[in-house]
Amino acid sequence: MSRATLGALWSFWRRNPLQLFTLVAGLALATALWSGVQALNAEARASYDAAASVLGEGRFDQIVPRAGDTIAQGSYLALRRAGWQVGPVIEGPLDAGDTQLRIVGIDPLTAPAGLGPVTQADDTVLQDFVAEGVLFAHPGVAEALEAALAQRVVADPGLPPDTAITDIGIAQRVLDRPGELSRLIVAEQQPMARPPLDEIASDLVLQPSQQTADIAQLTDSFHLNLTAFGLLSFAVGIFIVHGAIGLAFEQRRGIIRTLRTLGLPLRQLIALMVLELLILSLVAGGIGVLLGYLLAATLLPDVAATLEGLYGARISGSLSLNPAWWLSGLAIALLGTALAATGALWRIARMPVLASGKARAWAVASGRLRGLQGAAVAALLLASGLLTVLGDGLIAGFAGLACLLIGAALALPVILDALLTLAQRRARGVRSEWFWADTRQQLPGLRLALMALLLAMAANVGVSTMVSSFRLTFIGFLDQRLTAELYVGVESEDEAPRLQEFAEPRTDAILPLLSVDTRLADQPTQLFGARVGPSYADNWSFIASDGPVWERVDGGEAVIINEQLARRADLWPGDSLPITPDVTLPIAGVAGDYGNPKGQAVIGEALFRDLYPAERATRFGLRTDDPSALRDALVDEFGIDPGQITDQAALKRFSLDVFERTFTVTGALNILTLAVAGFAMLMSLLTLAGMRVPQLAPAWALGVTRAELGRLELLRAVILAGLTLLVALPLGLALAWMLLAVINVEAFGWRLPMYLFPLDYARLGAFALLAAMLAALWPARRLARTPAAHLLKVFANAN
Amino acid sequence: MRMLLDITDLTKSYEGPEGRIEVLRGIDLSLGAGQTLALTGESGSGKSTLLHLVGGLDQADGGRIVIDGTDITDLDDAGRAALRRDTVSIVFQQFNLIPSLDVAANIAFQARLAGRHEPDRNHALAAALGLTDQLGKYPEDLSGGQQQRVAIARTLAAQPRLVLADEPTGNLDEATAAKVLDQMLALVAETGAALMMATHSPGLAARLDARVNLSLGQLA
């Protein structure tokens, strides 16, 4: 019995391959976009985890130098002798041919348990480490390292990307830094009676674990943004699946009724339909996971560049296939199908066996249903407003955004119906009246595709507004901040005074770049000492300020903080900020800072030097009217390595490059979402084309030609897309506002001004109309070429 | 003669826009195995409702329907589905074929559900109903008369004890209707099944063993 029934159910798809294709393609695309994004996130997180587990990043307290990047081996030995359980680490960059990698040296005998190569962790490792001089390297760099060094290299996939780990003695030799250490890892268990760190090595400072490179936390917001886009794309795909399943079930009402009258129990029928959907969703999910893998592999290099550029987080440039990932891809495909099919299955379960076998006017909303939809729209929009105003945190921001988008999507059919009713009332002439009435009749069948189009267009408007606003602000910010024409670094602190002496007569101003990493208002902060002059005073603008900002900072009477620190610590002009236990300064200004996610503060140079006398600048900004002459003089006369000089234009180019790559991923997802919506429109129109014949046959019989019917179908699609665009534009701008004023503040700590880009919107509108026209072209052409016999059949089978 | 179908004091009403409508008001009826019965009456007299109740497609408000010794009024959905699969089969005015299956698969379908699939028998039925050349076609390619013959073949292929027919020739022209009815009666007689057929046509009704007339929900 089950076999016969499954055969009958499957025969529907065999006879309607286009609908089968729509269902499978919709689900596969939705799964692909979702699982592609998840693959990117999983790959990045795996890299962070590898860094944490193998190198101890973020897991253990560490001892680091107060200034510079080197700890003398003697300080380490003194600490060990005093009872401190610490393990030495040296790390540094190494060029192995064309490959740049990071060499990390540890002492396996003193390193806390768990550090070191992961997959090779057996008894031979320690021996290899200590006695054999083996380097364990990430497979991506192992070959290059082996070619460059005499030591044996073992590939270890458990290591972070572009990293090799070895015994500390080997690392010091390879890096040519004998007797030097970079940091000390502090074991969790320490003897109670050990002397304080200051007494043994006052040039060292203890960093609690959460203060060290907590890359996963820093990058969470980036991954959440990606996830949100993945979810939006998935939602657009699920609209297609919902439409395809809903339509297929409606069209199969006749079959279902017949099966039941022939003696198939309802429960068994439902079970077989669920089984049928399960098989379809597994097939589509499998295709989706495969497409998602290809998508992720394509986007991974850009994501890797973005994460390294923004956060300094290294992630692997190649994708690994994790079973958990593809299983979760299949699970999301099943979940999406369940979401899309539950309503249709519920209707079938409740359908009396004697219900009409004819497909109802497909998904025509009854008055009661329209009322419910209206209530849902009002509730969602209200929830969105409340979450935006009262909500706290990134999750609340995204939840508000989701409520806004779903609410607007549900409101779309109601708005379109009202607009079409208005057009029908104002129509002059019988044909145009019929056209508007017929367009209204099409609305229920097209509503899901139009909702998908609305979401895709709104996302496009919103994201392009955000990115373009960000670009304008960021370029302005770079112009403000990169005031010096040349940036020069010296190799050692001793060289700095000689450089200043040399540059003094050749420049308009020398700006030493002095900074220390510290904690202010309980937030990790980079504290700068600024040599106040016109370079700063003329260029910096403030979000909020109090009095003559730079004069007060120059006099050591006030501090400037960036927006990130201001928002996180809720500090604003007029508030006081303790800089050291002895020095507390009022805040004079809050500056917009779009270059990093960290807190920053600026005090005057004199005060900085008083507070941190050991700190010496090794990088300087040089102001000059003739940068190329100054560069030549520095290289030819002073003898500086040209690689130590960065000009402003190159720095801006680099920063903008990081910026552009940051948004390559969201841009690609944006375009894909729009393409999926266009596909939804095409499939809906094609599917509906078959159902249109009985609706259009009377008009044909009354004298409207088939060619004219085809043209009107085309016009109808364009009008509906155009009206959807009218709703998408304000929705997209609302989305942009929420991204800039809510999500961005929660994710990165800064709020961006919003600019409008009418030309971009006009271009998007033209694309959307063109896409709708292209989607309608094929169905309209098919309709225009419908043989008269098919139209006549409608009247022959009128019963 | 042993009664295959026994109906006692059967009542059924529906909620209409203008209040409750009593469609059947105390019907008593019996049908022996192998007998044929015509059910006549005006539109709205309750003919289809009576057939639906006997076929287990709907539930009565009161009274009893006993088919082959089983009271079907107390059966749940699964029990009534089993009744339709194994004992009773219905020929509808609108044919109710499965559009995505070809003629051969449509004919075999109910027999497969009932576990009584006999390919030779199906071929014989198709031949007797003049459908041999149509077996590979789909319902949309057939005329109304051909579709109804497929529906009859499907019903008889399942070898039911009781065939219910609701205006089986209502969509056919007079000549085709007569031909289809001839074939149906011959095949029902051959299988020994009982037949209860609702019809408007006094001519068709006259060709069956017995005839009852329904008027305002009661047997006249």
Strand order of the largest sheet of chain A: 6-5-7-4-3-9-1-10
Q: Which descriptor suits the 3D outline of chain A?
A: elongated
Binned strand content of chain A: 5-15%
CATH class of chain B: Alpha Beta
Our measurement of the CA-to-CA distance between the termini of chain B, rounded to an integer number of angstroms, reads: 24 Å
DSSP E strands of chain A, number: 21
The oligomeric state is: heterodimer
- Assign the structural class of chain A, choosing from mainly alpha, mainly beta, alpha/beta, alpha+beta, or little secondary structure: alpha+beta
How many domain modules of chain B? 1
Number of helices, counting only DSSP H or I runs of 4 residues or more of chain A? 24
Q: CATH superfamily of chain B, called what? A: P-loop containing nucleotide triphosphate hydrolases
Number of E strands of chain B: 10
Kindly report the spatial arrangement of strands forming the biggest sheet of chain B: 6-7-8-3-9-10
Helix-and-strand structural type of chain B: alpha/beta
Low-confidence stretches of chain B: none
Report the radius of gyration of chain B as a whole number of Å: 17 Å
Mean of residue pLDDT values of chain A: 80
Could you explain how this protein is built, in words?
With 799 residues, chain A is α+β, with helices and mostly antiparallel strands. In chain A, α1 crosses α10, α13 packs antiparallel against α14 and α21 packs across α24. An eight-stranded mixed beta sheet of chain A has the order 6-5-7-4-3-9-1-10, with helices on one face. In chain A, strands 13, 14, 15, 16, 17, 18 and 19 form a seven-stranded mixed beta sheet that branches. In chain A, strands 12-20-11-21 form a four-stranded antiparallel beta sheet. Helix content of chain A is 63%, strand content 13%. In chain A, a hairpin with a 5-residue loop joins β17 and β18. The longest helix of chain A is centred in the C-terminal third of the chain and has 54 residues. By secondary structure, chain B is an alpha/beta fold. Chain B has one domain: 3-Layer(aba) Sandwich (Rossmann fold). Chain B has a six-stranded mixed beta sheet, with helices on both faces. In chain B, strands 2-1-4-5 form a four-stranded antiparallel beta sheet, with helices on one face. The longest helix of chain B has 18 residues. Chain B is globular.
